[in-house]
Amino acid sequence: MRMAAPAPGQKIKVGVLGATGSVGQRFMQLLNGHPWFDVVALGASPRSAGKTYEDAVNWKQSVPIPPAMAPLVVSECKPDAPVFKDVKIVFSGLDANFAGEVEEAFAKADVAVFSNAKNHRYDSDVPILIPPVNLDHLDIIPAQRKARGYDKGFIITNANCSTTAMAIGIKPLAAKFGIETIMVTTMQAISGAGYPGLSGMDVLDNVVPYIGGEEVKMETESRKILGTVQNSVFVDADVNVAAMCNRVNVLDGHLECLSIKLANKATAEEVIDCIKTYPSITKDLGLPSAPDHDVVYNPSHDRPQPRMDRMVGDGYTVTVGRVRDCNVFDIRMVVFGHNTIVGAAGGSLLNAELCVVRDLIN
Ligand SMILES: NC(=O)c1ccc[n+]([C@@H]2O[C@H](COP(=O)([O-])OP(=O)(O)OC[C@H]3O[C@@H](n4cnc5c(N)ncnc54)[C@H](OP(=O)(O)O)[C@@H]3O)[C@@H](O)[C@H]2O)c1
């Protein structure tokens, strides 16, 4: 069901938790001038609380701090803080050491929470929502509210950034042919580690073949995301994923090389065709941040590439390329997505816009 968007002049008041961090800064950039959402409250650590945003943040985006946001005073992340009084949505870019309890407190206080942290991703009543992949997982929200005693609040998480790109890239294949097994090797940008992240001594002229916890996240989250909701219970997809994750000397955007065993055999041409004809789900839903296409196929022999493709669809589109037969499984291909836009803040924004359209923000 498609609901009316908030009328002009009646934007929904929102807050950003972890507003000073890498993901938080991206939220501030993407929420600037948003047609439905008005940023009125910012939260971060006690180190930042009490300062104006421009004094608290070590701004690292390539555009200036939005002028209307610079003078906002950062608060501690407490739902009873006065700045959060009329807030109906919070976007969370909180450090995972603190996100879990803080996000629960906001949900309990009637706030819809859209989280980027890992803390609640594996809860049995919390969706890992990616609208082009599994928007039916929203069906769990009434059960979550009931089980946790939330009235108007709830918690929705994003996937880990590398999992998001992979899930959007493989969804057309999963829907049409079914997927049994994926071997994936990632080349992940340094912004995925937050700021300051890795030292220059570690990452310049180098590749680090280890990202703590990342491989298990890709292997676990993709099963939940590609699964179904049956009688208010998540049923994991029967797909085997083996991930090998590497940090490379790239600023933004994760590149992933996949070898895929399909449930029903298909040629490379058939796979390309199913990607090219996959519907533009977020645009069809009328979400204001939606790109023209959630996933595109790039036919060039040497694409996607981070520098060339990170801003396709303003960073909301996942690009697939190099689709070809595989000597071991069925299909090989390369998937690329912007880790802090579609893989983090932008993904949360689409989730919140979807919840507005579905009349879940009350
Ligand atoms: N970077 C990515 O590409 C990416 C992608 C997907 C998901 N994520 C996840 O998103 C979350 C944020 O990542 P990030 O890279 O943005 O991290 P980050 O740059 O380190 O930012 C962390 C934020 O948490 C705040 N914080 C720290 N301690 C706090 C406390 N005690 N109470 C309240 N707030 C506190 C920080 O505020 P101060 O500035 O005041 O310290 C800062 O705003 C993490 O859970 C991460 O795993 C990141």
From TrEMBL:
EC id: 1.2.1.11
Sorted keywords for this record are: Amino-acid biosynthesis, Methionine biosynthesis, NADP, Oxidoreductase, Threonine biosynthesis
**What NCBIfam families does the database record attribute to this sequence?**
asd_EA, PRK08664.1
Q: What class of enzyme is it?
A: oxidoreductase
What is the protein name given in its UniProt record? Answer: Aspartate-semialdehyde dehydrogenase
Active-site residues are C161 (acyl-thioester intermediate), H254 (proton acceptor)
Q: Which SMART domains match?
A: Semialdhyde_dh
Q: Which GO terms describe its molecular function?
A: aspartate-semialdehyde dehydrogenase activity; NAD binding; NADP binding; protein dimerization activity
What does this chain do? Catalyzes the NADPH-dependent formation of L-aspartate 4-semialdehyde (L-ASA) by the reductive dephosphorylation of 4-phospho-L-aspartate. Mediates the second step in the biosynthesis of amino acids that derive from aspartate (the aspartate family of amino acids), including methioinine and threonine, the latter of which is a precursor to isoleucine.
Enzymatic reactions: L-aspartate 4-semialdehyde + phosphate + NADP(+) = 4-phospho-L-aspartate + NADPH + H(+)
Organism for this UniProt entry: Chondrus crispus (Carrageen Irish moss)
What family does the Swiss-Prot or TrEMBL record give for this protein? Belongs to the aspartate-semialdehyde dehydrogenase family.
